[in-house]
């Protein structure tokens, strides 16, 4: 389930460039060193500084899950996370899911196979949530999947195909791990 740290909804507590800080983190496996305002939000840094446009901004209130990324393997709402808090961490976005040769991850393949892809705002967050879930629990039961995806809201569809997609992703990930073992 996505973690939603407390956040002051008013981002403008410091002027641009004031109280800036230098952070170092791995973004999709590549080391980054950037200077950010002390009150910079991770969502904005990923989209604006690093071109990760797959990280979606929707509610920007930590409610919908569209902005979900993985920080040290755990799903977090990047709209509700200060950028400085990922100093020293590993951050993963949807841009890092496919292999460099374009081979889709088990999660991407499963969502495609099972019709779990929905609108462009929800899909990347759902994929990252699923990736985080399967790292915590490679064979989640349906109740666990429901509990996790309850943190990602969708306003236009039922969740059945998404549930099937997550179950299929677990199967495919298991097969992939079996192949590489
Ligand atoms: S945009 Fe972050 S939870 Fe909705
Ligand atoms: S799939 Fe995006 S709001 Fe429903």
Notes on the structure:
A hairpin with a 2-residue loop joins strand 3 (68-71) and strand 4 (74-77). The protein has helices at 42-49, 106-114, 123-136, 142-149, 160-180; strands at 21-27, 30-36, 68-71, 74-77, 90-92. The longest helix is centred in the C-terminal third of the chain and has 21 residues, at 160-180. The two termini are 28 Å apart. With 181 residues, the chain is an alpha+beta fold. The chain folds into 2 domains: 20-96, Beta-grasp domain (Ubiquitin-like (UB roll)); 106-179, [2Fe-2S]-binding domain (DNA polymerase, domain 1, Orthogonal Bundle). It is globular. The protein is 33% helix and 14% strand. It has a 5-stranded mixed beta sheet with strand order 2-1-5-3-4, covered by helices on one side. Helix 2 (106-114) runs antiparallel to helix 5. Bound molecules: FE2/S2 (inorganic) cluster (2 copies). One FE2/S2 (inorganic) cluster binds at residues 118-119, 121-122, 154-157. One FE2/S2 (inorganic) cluster binds next to loops. Residues 21-97 form the 2Fe-2S ferredoxin-type domain. Pfam families: Fer2, Fer2_2. InterPro entries: 2Fe-2S-bd, 2Fe-2S-bd_dom_sf, 2Fe-2S_ferredoxin-like_sf, 2Fe-2S_ferredoxin-type, 2Fe2S_fd_BS, Beta-grasp_dom_sf, Diverse_Oxidoreductases. Keywords: 2Fe-2S, Iron, Iron-sulfur, Metal-binding, Oxidoreductase. It comes from Rhodococcus opacus (strain B4).
